[in-house]
DNA sequence: TGTGATTTAGATCACACGCTCTAAAACACA
DNA sequence: TGTGTTTTAGAGCGTGTGATCTAAATCACA
């Protein structure tokens, strides 16, 4: 019996993602959001609750997509080392493509949230630990197939890769010189070789 | 002939730093600031211009101190590798000390500023490139004194160290498990060995 | 076709924000 | 001590914010 929604949820949430990604949670005003989403204020509040709930939804959606991408990328390729090479190559491409100089929504959220706001801190920490686990699996496979050094534990190397990835996402938000980005990625992948 | 200021500039700026560090630029309200600084609103605006100018001042002061610390720490010790070990050990200590779970003010500023706000982006990028240069010098010395691998260029390794450092600062803002932090630091320093 | 729930639309609310204003107080110099 | 300048003190300005409200439009079902 209810009147169906007139807007496409996917498109609307994509638009909200774009705004939050570029401006952050606090700086993104509801007016900016409704304009970008092409929805009225009332529709937004009716459909999603409030600004914070919308942000949470956007963040979860983004994180889910990012984790899926990480998992599949780290699983492809002839060897674990090759998968990691591809992974970081894609990351550096994204970092250097002028458009996506916005870093990673999750990282941005984590830094904006800070010590207050335990909710978002938990969300972000959870994503980080999942990615770290994916790295760890990948490194372990590489140590088994001989493509990655066994000089250090898979856990330690996974932590290293996580921090490099996060650092890269930070650098992405400044205007990085391509040489720096390419160099550090080359360095990170080379360092894993046996 | 003018009446001298009644407040201690250093203490007041330290207080402002604490607020901006914990809350970020946008979320730190002028009322929070004046309360923490123990100054009246008029004094704040009279002495520092506006909120943004105060933030800029605080950021520059913080960055200056941080760069000095980096430079001196990376210069001490029997070898370049030992200096880097100390450097990252100090960093992980700071990351794990419950109090300073605020990461790094410069990193926070860089991520909050984003693509808009070219001014702060420039400030942050400049600090990053200076730190990278310090790493580069240190690595070069290590390659000369034999304490650091020559398998990769000093520039590439410096980039790797920068991204690890930034990643660590991001992780600091979530509640990191000590084992993860210690592991990734161990991994980063081990990987530099010849 | 009528009924009722739910969406739209846009004006509008109360509030917190960054910032300024007017006095009064305080000090360096003559 | 008198003068001039700058600080303090805190009330209050206009604006933009997140969120709501009333009414009209819309559609599934009986």
Distance between the termini of chain A: 65 Å
Output the structural class of chain A: mainly alpha
If helices are DSSP runs of H or I spanning 4 or more residues, what is the number of helices of chain A? 9
Provide the low-confidence segments of chain A as ranges.
none
Proportion of beta-strand residues of chain A: under 5%
Determine the oligomeric state from the structure.
homodimer
| Count of individual beta strands of chain A | 0
Helix percent band of chain A: over 70%
Please outline what is shown here.
The structure is a homodimer of 194-residue chains. Chain A has nine helices and no strands.
Structural commentary:
By secondary structure, chain A is mainly α. Chain A has 9 helices and no strands. The first copy, chain A, has helices at 9-23, 30-37, 41-48, 51-73, 80-96, 105-113, 118-145, 154-173, 178-190. The longest helix of chain A is centred in the last third of the chain and has 28 residues, at 118-145. The radius of gyration of chain A is 19 Å and the shape is elongated. Chains A and B meet through helix 6, helix 7, helix 8 and helix 9 of A and helix 6, helix 7, helix 8 and helix 9 of B. The structure holds a DNA duplex (30 and 30 nucleotides).
